[in-house]
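Pasting as-is:
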Amino acid sequence: MAVKKGWMAFPVKERWHKKPTALMGGIAIYISTAFPLFFISDPGLLIPYIFKKASIYTLPPIDTVIWAGMTLLFILGLLDDFIRIKPQTKLVGQILAASFIAFLGFRLYWFSSLTLDTIVTIIWIVGITNAFNLLDNMDGLCTGIAFIGCVYFILLFSGHSMNGGFVSSILLAGALAGFLVYNFHPASIFMGDCGSLMIGFVLSMLGIHYSNTISTNALGAFAVPVMIMMVPILDTSMVTFIRLLSGRKASAGGKDHTSHRLVIIGFSEKDAVMFLFGIGAVSGLSALFVSTNDSLTSPAVIIPFAISIILMGIYMAQIRVYPEKEFCLLRNHSYTPILVELTYKRQLALVVLDFCLIAFSYYLSYRLSFNFQEFSINFKYFLNSLPVIIGCKFLIFFAVGIYRGIWRYMSSNDVFVYIKASIGASVFSLALVVFIFRFENFSYNIFFIDWMLTTGLLLGTRGSFRISLDAVKRKSVSGQRVLIYGAGRGGEILLREIINNKKHNLEPVGLIDDDVLKTGKKLQGYLILGTFDDIPALREKYDFNSIIISFNGKEPNNLEGAKLFCKNAGMDLKRFAIEFKSVDL
């Protein structure tokens, strides 16, 4: 119908898609969700609440409110799809819908101040609604993330007597699953604003419903909805922040979203979407853990998850998307040198990260050593000794020199330095606790667990930086396709140089070597495809344009054969070598 009616999205500069695609898929999602919800709920029940004839101590049924709100947002989005209303007009419509929800008595219950909580509730609804609208920037992304969120809300609401949120989650999840079949890459239809605005509103209401009825503690009421919505929150926050600092309108379209940045660093479009699906799935699992545990246990998941998201956001923000005007509002001011210093002094970020890791490791060692009741009793000893632990460990870390290394070139020697620093820090901490507190109400078990956690987190964070950087560089390798002749030490060094230096503009397809026993093995992640005799067949299969000889310090067995083959095939033949040259003084 969309194609027949001409409801099409045509490629434009600020949009990602490259071919005309059907629009108005949101109509299908709305019909699939709202029609059954209309018959399950009773919209007439809203009338007493609108005219304040119902009890002020009760809330209208959540499924009825969701139906009414999603209908309003669907109409607003449909108008925008057809007549392109101004962004400020669309925002006013969203605020009116959110104010209507607050008028009915729904709140997040994040703050004791009713005024503040009401304002934050309105901001939450408008923010999440817009977040999903902005997230609809790549095939299947908005649909898939919303589906994952619905699945987790289904799990959270299952088994509870107030099942309006449960039913609403199931209906929307079913509609999204069906739509994702046609919306996933390569998409044959887009949902349009009528779909994304409606979906964002429903999920914001499911978050409010969880805080109202299911949450058992204040931390869960805040953390669970935020963690389930983490992908759209991260994407919207980062894009809005960077656009404003770059002198661009936050409401303007652009290829600067998280998904676009993943493609820039080497992910395919499908891989970028699946990566964000994975983030959504992990954040949902973390939310489930928080929902079933007390406020003293939940930080064991919330803290590392928050650190990971912050680090990911910082890394994504550094990927260059705009031309020369990026972050222009921060330039040419008195504080510019400070910002430059903070940007390039990455060791400062490591110090802040280690502060969080030290505190988290010590906290988790207590949680693992005691049950809830015992932990409540020993919590004051944890608080009293925490500053001592942090101070001791930082002194040893600096003394041993873990901040003098460069993590991107982390080697086995650095691993031993981290282990030595962690052992020394734990021993010094234990000695000082014995001296200050006489080791009363403490346990050796706590310090042993703390040492293992600290060591693991130190190595894990540095190692993850190195691994992720290598993975990104490998994905972004592109240029002239080359075959490397020589899978020894010289080949390893050559591969490292190609991966780390994009100026060469080379893309290895694999390696060959005179040693037949190496065939089928891998070097630096690249397959050793065969021997010199296999070159003609490999040329047909991999279509490389050049051969690079990487034997270090000796001639290959078939140098003359390589010259003849490249000459006959019209290919380049290069040689890679490391040499030292004297400099004239």
